[in-house]
Amino acid sequence: MEFVADFHIHSKYSRATAKNLDLENLYINAQLKGITVLGTGDFTHPGWWRQIRQKLVRAEGGLFKLNESIARQCDQNVPPPCRRDVRFMLVTEISNIYKKADKTRKNHNLVFLPDLDSAQTLINRLDKIGNIRSDGRPILGLDARNLLEIVLETSDEGYLIPAHIWTPWFSLLGSKSGFDCIEECFEDLSHHIFALETGLSSDPPMNWRVSSLDRFALVSNSDAHSPAKLGREANLFDTNLSYGAIKKALEGGEEGFLGTIEFFPEEGKYHLDGHRKCGFRSMPAHTNELDKICPVCAKPLTLGVLYRVEQLADRPENYRCESARFHQNLIPLEDILSEVYQVGPKTKTVTQAYQRLIQRYGSEFYILRDIPLEDLKKFNYPLVAEAILKMRKNDVHFDAGYDGEFGKVRLFNADERDRLQGQCCLFETTGEKKTAQVKKTQKIASKFIPKPTSQFPQSAKKPVKKIFIFNSGQQAALDHCQGPLIIIAGPGTGKTRTITSRITALIKTGKVKADRILAITFTNQAANEMRNRLTDMLDGSTVTAQLHIGTFHGICLGLLKQVHGADSLSIADETLKKSIMADALYQLKSKGHRFDFSDDFFLQIISKAKQQLLGPTDDLGSVLETGQQDAVSQTVAKVYQTYQDLLNLQNLVDFEDLIYQTVCLLKKDSAWRRKLQERFSCIFADEFQDINYSQYQFIRLLAPEKANLCVIGDPDQAIYGFRGSDVRYFTKIIDDYPESRIVFLSQNYRSTKTILNSSFQVIKGRQIQIRQGSGARTYSNRSTDQCLTIADAPSARSEAVAIGCSIEKLIGGTGFHAVDFGKVGDSGEGSLSFMDIAILFRTMEQGRLIRDVLESAGLPCQLASRQDWRSRPTVAKFIALLRIIAGQGAFWDLTHLQDLTSAPIGKNTLLAFKNWSYEKKLNLAAALQTLTKNPVPEFNKVQRFELEALICFVNSIKQKTAGFNLSQTLSHLADMTGHQSWFKNENFQELAQRAGSYEDNILGFLNDLALKKDTDFYHPGAQKIALLTMHAAKGLEFEVVYIAGCEQGLIPFKHHRDNGAGSIDEERRLFYVAMTRAKEQLFLTWSRKRVIYGKILDGELSPFVKKIEKDLIQHMNQTGQKKRRCEQLSLF
DNA sequence: ACACCATGGCTTTTT
DNA sequence: GCCATGGTGT
Question: CA A1131, C1' C4: Å apart?
């Protein structure tokens, strides 16, 4: 059957749409227009999705219809001659904003799916990627190619059609942020794209001029934001009514896609070029004469669709494509009536006339396209009839649309109007044959569909290897050959590049063998980064694999394994550590000790002690607060000893032990030490300002006085003093290695002068003097006219909103605050994308608020959080279980067995069992074994029963999984405990996936897991705004940085009961670190009121910022600059 | 064993 | 202002 379809519409849940855009009104208005198949639009929105599932029911072939009772009610509002069946199809539009090939891309894409299940699957996947709840047309920081991939994975029948491909702001081929061809955007998946939406401002003949579009079906949809706009463009089909048939027709295999109903492109909003605000419009040729500059305001013109088409066209005007289908240009009846009556399209006159017409004659499409001439003659509306005739003959004139302004129809001149109104029935047969265009029978099948060009040159994207030119400092660091080298490198001075270049040079010149190099970092992230860069620079991973790159803890674990054997060490993570401490305190309490301190207090002290290489029997005075020493040190020593005994009993080490024990061994075993010193003849230590005593000693022991030790860091970026790091070791190393060469890297390649000068004001005079004359400032050559911005807001929330607005301006509009996408971007930079922007703050609390505000505005952002993946219930459970199987379980692990066995062990039994075992100095594995051999009378009947069941359970698992590799073991565990559902659990899946490479080495797996919990902290590649604490931002860089909460009390941070002012310099450095993350632009924002601990406090600008402000003002006065370098942003 | 209230403490955080 | 902890009471 023949029918009209409009796939691209929206719901009331999209921004800037009509309130009455619900399924009922869509159903009614589709009939008034004469549309049979309607896209649902917006199905990723939870509200609309609920409506869809409630009100739509399955119809034939993957289509849906409004449920019977609602439909019958609605039909009362549909004039009988208009009534028809209406089918819905699951379609949604996604706004993709992302960076690709160094340019920000913004395009909109239609996604089609055949059934509710696959739609739900897609919703779930997109939900994880971005915020789909705040708008019917969600903005995702997702590459369109990857969206397509997801759609294809979701359903075999799913497909994607790029939307309104020519509009300047948000489209595939758009002039502002588009590509030049389809393959650039969809790469290897391009052949899955078979149709393109031409959009209101272009029609098929314009598209025919671009030969690369020949193979695509050109569809047209309304993109309706209100029911009245339905079908202003639409598609004609002759297929049976089903999802599959429509897809096939579009794919072109069959002839069911007849063609399209079009707007006159001149009526579209972006047909010509111009400036709406300036009231200036021009044709492409004229635009070029003007150099694309607006003669009114001298800014670049908004280039329209016609311009862009001519840019990409490889064929002349009026070229007719061989595969062309039928198309017909129509003017919405409302617009015709508006022109006829010389009143606005939304006026009562027009609405009433419209109603009368469709009640009498039928649907709008019937009136516009099909009413026979004879009937038109008898029309009571001569001007309307003439207008329709003119339209059908294409005898229409326009003031064409430009820069978001719709074009205006001009059907009659004054003469014509008078004449027609005078003579009511003018219609002789003036030889008006139905124009060829109106004959629907004209079908031109697309016989020729070129083979997909999947060979898009991938190589073009491979980054060309850059040839670096080193500055004198860097060169000195590279040229240094023997002995200790200390590199002091300010922010953005090419620290990593220098260190990796040095390593590369050492290997390539054959001076050092790769396997004798040891590179130590603090974080896994840094280690990975270094490894990746080296792999690039060393042309392959074979050499890199021989290098020893790792974190302090990782390297020490490896060394301890050498000594203790691989399977006798298990790392006690945070939770386990706490349980052991609880056990220790319990034991002491039951012996009559009383404490006024929490577990955390003791753990903290012990951790500090270990960092100072102090054991339980050493004098702990130095790690205690002054005044506490005598009173507490005895207790602490006792707790420390007990805690340590419990760790030892169970072969557990905590994080600090890894380094502490390694250092102790190195001290004791001089043969081993010498062996290692020879082995690692070349040692690199990164981020040296963050080192603590034990780590320093570790390096001292590995690297003798004249060793090839290279340390690199920046004392001014030392921000981890609160966890034991001490920047003084940077000074100490110079004394301890008197022959060391010191190199300063002071040229910053990252930030502009403005940013760097400002940041210097913060630390000026407070720099840590490594030696006389050091503390030279980092400088930059990058001039800019970009100001530093200091801005205030009335509240923390409005501060967040202001940041959001500011970002939107920078990005050049996201389509949200602009109605439709009309008024965006005069001030837009255009080249920025979300991933180039970071918002930094001091506390997570601020971060959460900012995230909430940005997300509800639909701006994609990621709040970096180090929530421990392993403490999620499923993961924790399996880790506990694996520990038990590996014979390394702690008693605490038993609490995780609750829902794994049919006979869980009770609290009392566990306690009794634990106490008994501790008494007998048995760890879990040993205790279980002892009990297996000879049951003990100490326990009562119930306890004995529970313990037997436990032993039985553990043994049976052990037996059944013997010889299994880890993944097999995991599946077996899920299976045998009756938790098959876990196979679908994503945490379980991730665990299984990570376990994959460990064969049967459970302990190795668990230890790595404990040392590498960097799973989803922050994704640098994600197309999202980064929300980071100032600490977490260290080592990263962004084009634009906002530092929020620049207030007294927050920066520097004032703890509510913090008495010591000792950390103020660290706070200063932290702010310095934060500021120097910015490359191009830096915003410092603060709030005049802020709620802290429930109290509303008056804010005052941070003293650090005041310093900057003062300097900038002074600088302005001195140089007499007119240019404001420091400006107040007016936020609202 | 659980429900209830009161109190206190609030940051940054790799491994 | 909110959450977690701990103590008391049923």
Answer: 38
Asked if the Cβ of residue A1093 lies within 7 A of any atom of strand C, the reply is yes
Q: Which of A657-671, A690-704, A757-771 has the lowest mean pLDDT?
A: A757-771
pLDDT (tens digit per residue) in A597-648: 778 888 888 999 999 999 999 888 888 776 666 667 888 888 899 999 999 9
- Checking each nucleotide's C1' against the CA of A1066, the nearest proves to be B12
Q: What is the pTM of this model?
A: 0.78
Angle at A904 (CA atoms; ends A900, A906), nearest 5 degrees? 145
CA distances from A131 to A149, A601, A806 (A): 19, 40, 19
In a 3-state reduction of DSSP, which class is residue A697?
Answer: helix
3-state secondary structure of A665: helix
A766: closest CA among A825, A717, A816, A832? A717
Q: Nucleotides on strand C with an atom closer than 7 A to protein CB?
A: 1-2, 6
Instruction: Round the average pLDDT of chain A to a whole number and report it.
Output: 84
| Closest by CA position to A820, among listed A139, A225, A18 | A225
For A1049: left if phi > 0, alpha if psi spans -120 to 50, otherwise beta; the answer is left
Q: Which residues touch strand B (CB under 7 A)?
A: A 522-525, 551-554, 574, 655-656, 722-723, 842-845, 866, 906-907, 1011-1014, 1017, 1029, 1031-1032, 1053, 1055-1058, 1093-1094
How large a percentage of chain A has pLDDT more than 70?
A: 89
What is the pLDDT averaged over residues A1070-1078?
95
- Whether any strand C atom is under 7 angstroms from the Cβ of A482: the reply reads no
Predicted local distance difference test score (pLDDT) of residue A1103? 92
Indicate whether A162 pLDDT > 90: yes
Distance A633 CA to B4 C1' (A): 38
Beta carbon of A926 within 7 Å of strand C? no
> What DSSP designation does A1049 have?
B
A578 Cβ neighbours under 8 A, 6+ residues apart: A599, A603
Produce one character per residue of A1063-1077: b if its CB has 16 or more CB atoms within 10 Å, e if not.
Answer: bebbbbbbbbbbbbb
Alpha-carbon distance of A610 to A625, in angstroms, equals 16
Confidence of residue A1131 (pLDDT cuts 50, 70, 90): very low
Residue A212 in this model has a pLDDT that exceeds 90: yes
Angle at A506 between CA A505 and CA A510, to 5 degrees: 110
What mean pLDDT is predicted for residues A348-359?
Answer: 90
Strand B contact nucleotides, protein CB < 7 Å = 1, 9-15
CA of residue A688 to C1' of nucleotide B8, angstroms:
38
Quick check: A879 and A1007 in contact, CB under 8 A? no
Contacts of residues A45-48 at CB distance under 8 Å and 24 or more positions apart, as own/partner, are: A45/A11, A45/A13, A45/A14, A45/A132, A45/A133, A45/A135, A45/A136, A45/A138, A46/A132, A46/A133, A47/A13, A48/A11, A48/A12, A48/A13, A48/A136
pLDDT at A938 over 80: no
Contact criterion met (CB below 8 Å) for A592 and A705: no
**CA of A291 and C1' of C7: distance in angstroms?**
79
CA dist., res. A771 & res. A503, Å (int):
26
Please state, in angstroms and rounded to a whole number, the distance separating the CA atoms of residues A813 and A815: 6
Lowest mean pLDDT among A501-510, A690-699, A886-895: A886-895
Is A1094 within 7 A of strand C by CB distance?
yes
A413 touches strand C (CB under 7 A): no
Residue entry with tokens 């001039």? A783
**Cis status, amide bond into A1052, omega within 30 of 0:** yes
Phi, psi of A300 (to 5 degrees): -60, 140
| Residue A1118: per-residue pLDDT | 64
Q: What residues have CB less than 8 Å from A8, skipping those under 6 apart?
A: A39, A41, A91, A93, A110, A163, A197, A221, A222, A223, A224
Structure tokens at A549: 């790159």
Tokens of A756: 């760097």
